[in-house]
Design a protein that fits this description.
heterodimer, A: alpha/beta, 10 helices, B: alpha/beta, 11-stranded mixed sheet, 13 strands
């Protein structure tokens, strides 16, 4: 199964009636933590666009760069005072990086694999990579992938539904003011970078360049090559003294990598020799076989 | 078809019992707990004052770099006999080096991701992928899952005990009021565990400690902190892992439990394991946490290391490590002897 974008949505705040949308799962009398409202809004919108509902197997993978700083600071302030009884459990919980994903699981009723990746800026992309790997390996049938970045009272949330190529449905649009009015140099990166990744891809079909890049990445990772996948020319020979210069041991590893990454097994050695001429030949063959959408 | 298992070809472990599996095995055999009084800088003003800390000869007693030092030590030990470089370094930690928060409110230094970067820098490693998971007590399960999907990596679980963590779990009333003498709550413990994962075919003539056969994680969606009494998530995680591996429950001879001293999780185990293995499930169940304390984000990785020890000493052929955490998360990691 090839993982593919389905729909995405982005938000800078949550609708006033956001809590009311999850009767039975979230007490509408209880407010969602302020920093989580954009993420919950984006996730709810993305799920609605995809037509996905509560499901025990759908995974959630989030990337977070800034979150929970005010809660962590409040907890530290109480801790410094030395009054253990004044410590608020909600401050501790709201400072944990895992709380946004756990909250999404609770309100949206998604019960599959659930993980949060943390990092400066790139966490959303890594979450996306992890979700695609989960789907490819069969560990999850589909995933809600998101990015959250929040500091100094400004929060951004982006969410995308990622499933099999067959499940492609449509696309969301970011609110026009999503990034407007942010102070210059503001440290909000994970969500905008994630948005840049999911936003520009149109029509739900990967471009030929994207398809080939996916194969290049697989080759570099599988063969432990210390080179940028971008440096592999589409028409360069994979084997021999020119081009990539792979040898027979690499060939075995490559065939195994194609099997694991794309679910394609060469029917014969002759067929493999024919297809493994160049990167472009290999990618085109996988597309023709319906293994690379 | 069941997915191809991966070989665990290197293990590095630090716990309150010491470095490696032997000290932990000795302490368990002797019925000796390594849990002790926490330093004043950790327990000051808190009602709960015990935990499992790294021995000071391995990791300094204080300082914001304790997590880095422990993780570095574990990775070096795990990679010592491995010839191939890891393609991916994936680190799982609940809160990371949170000592940094207390000492100087230095966000960058206290970040879990900064810990992974500093670790790779110190090791001189530049893997193709670096990932940091912060998924409370299932953090190292996620780092293992990431390593599994790449096929060649080092998965790390790391947790150190800071005042922030001790205070957080104390105010959530999750800690034992009897310092672990009764199963009335968990006692926290430190651990750093690194596991090298390679495809079986590449493991070659080096040592294979265990085979990682299947892994699953499910969420019950009951409450942010309270486990679901019906144990739906745990039952589904176990079922998914067994299904992936096409293994029958009766063929699992050891159940390795994390956080069984928590009354809420104990009730979950009772329900889920009782349904699958009957009343005799306890005969298969054990934990190392009486020696080390509950190792939070490092728990799954420590469980995998402990399973490898059971295989090496012919005490088990197939083991299931069970992980539980906030948000109703449950995980099941199925391992077989080499």
């Amino acid at each position: 199964m090839t993982a593919e974008w389905v729909v995405w949505a982005a938000a800078r705040e949550g609708a006033k009636d956001l809590e009311d949308r999850f009767p039975g799962r979230w007490n509408p009398k209880r407010s969602l933590h302020g920093e989580l409202r954009p993420l919950v809004q984006a996730a709810a919108d993305a799920l609605a666009l995809a037509g996905w509902g509560p499901d025990p197997d759908t995974a959630i993978v989030l990337g977070i760069d800034r979150y929970g700083e005010a809660s962590a600071a409040a907890f530290q302030a109480q801790l410094r005072k030395g009054d253990a009884k004044a410590l608020r459990p909600s401050d501790f919980l709201s400072s944990l990086p895992s709380t946004p994903a756990a909250t999404l699981g609770l309100v949206l009723g998604l019960g599959g694999y659930q993980a949060t990746l943390v990092g400066e800026g790139e966490a959303g992309e890594r979450a996306l990579d992890q979700a695609r790997a989960l789907i490819r390996s069969g560990a999850a049938p589909r995933a809600l992938v998101g990015a959250l970045t929040s500091t100094d009272g400004i929060a951004l949330g982006v969410a995308a539904c990622v499933g099999s190529a067959e499940a492609r449905i449509g696309w969301g649009k970011p609110p026009s003011d999503l990034l407007a009015g942010l102070p210059s140099g503001y440290l909000l990166r994970a969500a905008p970078r994630f948005l840049a990744l999911v936003g520009p891809v149109g029509g739900g079909v990967m471009s030929t360049a994207d398809q080939r890049m996916q194969v290049k990445r697989m080759i570099v990772e599988r063969l432990h090559m210390r080179m940028d996948p971008n440096d592999i020319a589409d028409d360069a020979p994979l084997f021999g003294q020119t081009g990539l210069g792979l040898d027979s041991v690499d060939a075995i590893e490559l065939v195994e990598g194609i099997k694991e990454s794309f679910g394609y097994e060469f029917p014969s050695e002759q067929e493999a020799r024919k297809v493994l001429g160049s990167l472009a030949q290999l990618a085109d063959h996988l597309v023709a076989q319906g293994k690379l959408a | 078809m069941a997915p191809a298992p991966l070989a665990i070809t290197g293990i590095g472990l630090l716990t309150a019992a010491g470095e490696g599996l032997e000290p932990l095995a000795r302490a368990i055999a002797e019925g000796r707990s390594c849990i002790g009084p926490l330093p004043e800088e950790v327990s000051r003003g808190l009602a709960h004052k015990v935990g499992g800390r790294f021995p000071v000869e391995l990791v300094p007693a204080s300082g914001p770099d304790r997590a880095l030092i422990a993780a570095d030590r574990a990775v070096r030990a795990a990679m010592a006999d491995v010839r191939r470089d890891a393609l991916l370094v994936s680190l799982g930690t609940g809160l990371g080096p949170s000592e940094g928060l207390e000492q100087e409110w230095e966000l960058a230094r206290a970040s879990p991701a900064a810990l992974t970067e500093a670790l790779c820098h110190g090791l001189g490693k530049s893997p193709l992928g670096v990932q940091t998971f912060a998924v409370t007590c299932l953090s190292s399960l996620c780092s293992l899952e990431a390593g599994k999907s790449v096929g060649r990596g080092v998965a790390i679980g790391i947790e150190t005990l800071s005042r922030t963590i001790q205070a957080g779990f104390s105010c959530l009333e999750a800690l034992s009021k009897t310092d672990g003498r009764e199963p009335d709550g968990i006692v926290l413990g430190e651990a750093a565990c690194a596991l090298v994962l390679e495809p079986l075919a590449l493991a070659g003539s080096g040592r294979t400690w265990a085979r990682l056969v299947a892994q699953a994680m499910r969420v019950d969606g009951n409450h942010l902190t309270s486990p679901d009494p019906a144990a739906k998530g745990l039952s589904r995680a176990i079922a998914a892992a067994l299904h992936q591996a096409q293994v029958n429950a009766r063929d699992v001879d050891r159940l390795l439990l994390t956080a069984p001293a928590s009354p809420g999780y104990a009730a979950q185990y009772e329900r889920a394991l009782g349904e699958l293995w009957g009343p005799a499930w306890r005969d298969r169940a054990s934990t190392w946490e009486g020696v080390t304390g509950h190792c939070l984000g490092a728990s799954t990785a420590v469980g995998v290391a402990w399973a490898a020890h059971l295989f090496a000493t012919a005490q088990a052929r197939r083991a299931l490590v069970l992980s539980v955490g906030f948000g109703g998360q449950s995980g099941a990691t199925l391992l077989e002897g080499p």
